[in-house]
Structures are given as structure tokens and as C-alpha cells.
Design brief:
By secondary structure, this protein is α/β, with parallel strands linked by helices. Strand 13, helix 6 and strand 14 form a beta-alpha-beta unit. Helix 4 packs parallel to helix 10. The longest helix has 15 residues. It is globular, with a radius of gyration of 21 Å.
Length: about 375
């Protein structure tokens, strides 16, 4: 192995992201031209009462360890008092801490790769409520974690919870997603406009638009502040701010789709305003209430396709749908880990604008 790698790399892949972790491992092996896997075997044990433990099955002494965990994977189950219990984000997060505990200070450096940051939507206080994401980051820091690697975090300001001693690296899969979009879709780049579904996602929409050299528009969610439904004020209407959409290709971008209701409401409004095509882009597609409404919306022509990533679990039934396109980010993640392990610069990994411009120029030439 090249001497540029100061510490021996070790990957600890939790079972909640087994396939993603294996793909990252194989890409790093290929990049470094080695035949031996970097994955360190572990055993995640669950007792019948729901308690758990983690056993490290190989040496981690003096290694640069990267713990990979998808805290959003609800498909993982374990037996508790005879019942099948689906693992929650809390369960997954607890297993991360168990791994760190099992290492017992033997590793040279520990990084946690959580593509979907644990409790990222509970990132700020609006009253007497918990501040779960900040507390989790501080806890990982106190346990000896040196770096958090995450993607498209709900609010990047959460890194202010750990201003000292722990590095917080937030990457955007924008470049990877747009490459797939440009390669697969037929559009006139001069007629593209990126849409933020609310004020909170405006920076993200501008980031996409800047990569694409396109215009940007925004919806404002007007809420009924006199009511609370499912813990939040219900949306009364989506009010649009932006240029005329007649004949345009509108691309709605957000960090995550939970139930998806807001995203589809925006798609419906865009169609009513004359948009010729509507595409949806979301880093994390959770479909917490199922995906039937997306099937119905696609059949009725509200949107053309949804682009999302494999950075968190997506039900296999969704991946078979004609309206869904999964973007593989394992190569990007492998580049990040390889670069961090070699103490290289990550600046280039956070900006791939030139490649997007070249692809767009090539597409314009064909048209």
C-alpha cells in the first residue's frame, strides 16, 4: 500500500448498510489495487428481552476506523419477547455507541459515517423540547470520535454543537445526482428552473441551480398556526415566488421525502402553472406512509420521475417503480473515505461544477 496512507484503514459496516458498505469496500480495494477487504467483521447480538451488544471479531489496534451506519433502515428486525421488532433510529444509534465501546481505545482514529444524520430534523429548539441531534454529536465526541461524515444534513448549522476537537464533514451528492439526471433525461437546459418547496430548502435549490447554471424559484408554506395536526401546524397553501413556469422543466429539490405530501402538492401546483415537465430530487426518500400516493400522482401526470440515492434504505418495491431512479453514491463515499484516510484535501470532493458544465455543453451540442 502507498505510504501516503498514514494509518491502516478499517471499515466497520453495520448490518443496516451491508450492501452499501460492501460496495464502498470493493471500490477502495480497486482504487488501491489490493485484494484484501478492509472490512473488519463484527457481530451484533440481540437478547430476547431486546438488549444488545456488539463483538469485534478482529484486531483494530492502531487502525483508522470508519463506522458505517444507516440509521434510517427500518427493514432490520430482531426478536424481542417473541415478537419481530423493527429497528428504529434510536436502536441503530445505540449500536454505533456499542461499537465504539467494544473498540476500547485500541484504534488510532474513529470516524462515524452516517449518511442520514441521526435526529437531524430535531436540530433546534422552538420551546421546551429536546435537542436530540446536538446531544448525540456531543456524546459521540465525548466517546472519542474524531470525525462525523454525513450527507445533505437537514441544517448544516448543527455542527456548531461540536465546535472543538471533532470534525463535522457534510457532503452533498448533488454532482452525482445531476450526472445521472443529465445522462438519462431529455430536456432543454435553457428552460430548466430549480424549485425550493419551502424557505428552508432555498439554499439547497440555489446550490443545485448554481451547479446547473439555471434559475431558481421558491414556494412558501402558509400554515394554519391555530391548529396542530401530527405535532405541527397544517399547511394551508403553497405560495409561489419565481419566474413564469409555462413550458419550463421544473426540478423540485429537497433533502428528504418523509410522507411526500408537500412534494406532491408542489408538483401539482407547478403543473397548474404550466410546467411542461416536473422532476423531483431528494437525497433521502423514506416514504414513511408508503408510496401509493406517488404511484397515483405519476399516473395522473403530476411528475415525470423521482431521483434519489442509496444513502439510506429504500424499499425494494419502490426501486422497481417506473417513476423512481436510484443514484448509487457508493463511489462518492469511497472517494471521501479514501481521501480522509490519506489526510488529503476534500475540497475537490465538495465541488464538481466543472464536470456538470462539461456534460451540459456536450448535451447542448447533441441537441
Amino acid at each position: 500500500m502507498s505510504s501516503k496512507y498514514k494509518d491502516e484503514l478499517g471499515l466497520i459496516v453495520m448490518k443496516n448498510c451491508k450492501n452499501f458498505g460492501k460496495s464502498i469496500d470493493s471500490k477502495i480495494m480497486e482504487k488501491r489495487q489490493v485484494s484484501e477487504s478492509f472490512i473488519i467483521p463484527i457481530e451484533q447480538v440481540r437478547f430476547n428481552n431486546g438488549e444488545g451488544k456488539v463483538v469485534i471479531k478482529d484486531s483494530v489496534r492502531d487502525k483508522d476506523l470508519y463506522i458505517l451506519s444507516d440509521v434510517g433502515n427500518h427493514s432490520e428486525t430482531y426478536k424481542m419477547f417473541g415478537y419481530d421488532n423493527h429497528m428504529s433510529p434510536d436502536d441503530h444509534y445505540q449500536d454505533i455507541k456499542r461499537v465504539i465501546s467494544a473498540i476500547r481505545g485500541q484504534a488510532d482514529r474513529i470516524s462515524v459515517v452516517m449518511p442520514l444524520l441521526y435526529e437531524s430534523r430535531q436540530h433546534r429548539r422552538k420551546g421546551r423540547e429536546s435537542l436530540d441531534c446536538a446531544l448525540a454529536l456531543q456524546e459521540l465526541q465525548s466517546l472519542g470520535v474524531s470525525t462525523i461524515v454525513t450527507f445533505d444534513v437537514h441544517d448544516p448549522n448543527i455542527q456548531n454543537a461540536v465546535p472543538n476537537s471533532m470534525s463535522f464533514e457534510n457532503f452533498y451528492p448533488t454532482n452525482t445526482i445531476l450526472k445521472e439526471f443529465i445522462k438519462n433525461e431529455d430536456f432543454d437546459s435553457s428552460d430548466v428552473i430549480f424549485i425550493s418547496p419551502d424557505t428552508g430548502a432555498m439554499d439547497r435549490a440555489r446550490y443545485y441551480a448554481n451547479m446547473f447554471q439555471a434559475d431558481v424559484g421558491m414556494f412558501h408554506k402558509r400554515r394554519d398556526l391555530s391548529k396542530i395536526v401530527d405535532g405541527k401546524n397544517p399547511i394551508v397553501a403553497h405560495e409561489y415566488l419565481g419566474r413564469n413556469l409555462t413550458g419550463k422543466t421544473a426540478i423540485v429539490v429537497d433533502d428528504m421525502i418523509a410522507s411526500g405530501g408537500s412534494m406532491l402538492d408542489v408538483a401539482n401546483d407547478l403543473k397548474q402553472r404550466g410546467a411542461q415537465k416536473v422532476y423531483l430530487i431528494s437525497t433521502f426518500a423514506m416514504f414513511t406512509n408508503g408510496f401509493d400516493k406517488f404511484n397515483e400522482a405519476f399516473k395522473s401526470g403530476l411528475f415525470d420521475k423521482l431521483y434519489s440515492t442509496n444513502l439510506t434504505y429504500v424499499d425494494s418495491e419502490v426501486t422497481k417503480m417506473p417513476w423512481y431512479k436510484m443514484v448509487d453514491c457508493s463511489s462518492y463515499a469511497s472517494d471521501i473515505i479514501d481521501t480522509l484516510n490519506s489526510s488529503g484535501s476534500i475540497s475537490e470532493l465538495k465541488n464538481g461544477k466543472q464536470k456538470i458544465i462539461e456534460m451540459l455543453d456536450k448535451k447542448r451540442g447533441k441537441n
